[in-house]
């Protein structure tokens, strides 16, 4: 009788642990990818820690990889969204690209942060996924941000015309139609001139977007060019910005309206 009681107790404990594990399962799962083959940002490590902490605070799992071999059909099936954090250069081979396309077409999400727009520049599908391609940037400066859409998740900590210090990317024209813009930068508030010898830039004119989202090829894509400096990841506004983008990309939830009235 004693042996039976002990056996029952063990079974009961196992059942309780299993139920507890199900009850506390992550809300969604994110692959955090940081491979670089060209410029490596010093802020990347802080960015990884920030996103890991966001996962702890907001109850989603974060699995960090620098090895692109994780881009296979079996591993990608474990995730709801992939985050490219300050990646640069060509980071996926043809087979990995194929599996990434399948991942997005299956209804999953992509988040691009900072130099994710300076990644896979010869891969047309990826450039459409991101929306714009990075061209050049001037020196780090403080500039005035314009809030274009307060209805997207995580935008509530931004104010129209607030000052922000970052690396202001100049972009190519949009590769796809239907991009929904969240933030822009006022070019009259900083020096847009940039000269790298082989390429020269002088801003984008009246409308200079720096963050946006869109539905693409069956999935979702969010991109922000902010995040060059490690100190940026300590700002509450930026942390909410990242979480809002990750949350929407992974779940498709949180947007109050797709067509909010313009902010002035």
Please describe what this structure looks like.
This protein is α/β, with parallel strands linked by helices. The chain has one domain (27-251): 3-Layer(aba) Sandwich (Rossmann fold). Helix content is 29%, strand content 24%. The chain is built from six helices and 13 strands. The strands form three sheets. A nine-stranded mixed β-sheet has the order 2-1-3-4-13-12-9-6-7, sandwiched between helices. The chain has a two-stranded antiparallel sheet with strand order 5-8. A two-stranded antiparallel ribbon has the order 10-11. Helix 2 (44-58) links the parallel strand 1 and strand 2 (61-65). The longest helix has 22 residues, at 2-23. It starts with a helix and ends in a 13-residue tail after the last helix. The relative contact order is 0.16.
Order of helices and strands: HEHEHEHEHEEEEEEEEEH
Helix run count = 6
Strand fraction equals: 15-25%
User: Quick check: average pLDDT?
Assistant: 90
Tell me roughly what share of residues is in helical segments.
Answer: 25-40%
Question: Helices, strands, pairings?
Answer:
Blueprint lengths: L1 H22 L5 E5 L10 H15 L2 E5 L7 H4 L4 E5 L8 H12 L3 E5 L10 H7 L3 E3 L4 E7 L15 E4 L3 E2 L8 E7 L6 E3 L4 E3 L6 E8 L2 E6 L11 H16 L13
Parallel strand pairs: 1-2, 1-3, 3-4, 4-13
Antiparallel strand pairs: 5-8, 6-7, 6-9, 9-12, 10-11, 12-13
Task: Explain briefly what this protein structure is.
With 264 residues, the chain is α/β, with parallel strands linked by helices. The protein is built from six helices and 13 strands. The strands form three sheets. The protein has a nine-stranded mixed sheet, with helices on both faces. Strands 5-8 form a two-stranded antiparallel sheet. Strands 10-11 form a two-stranded antiparallel sheet.
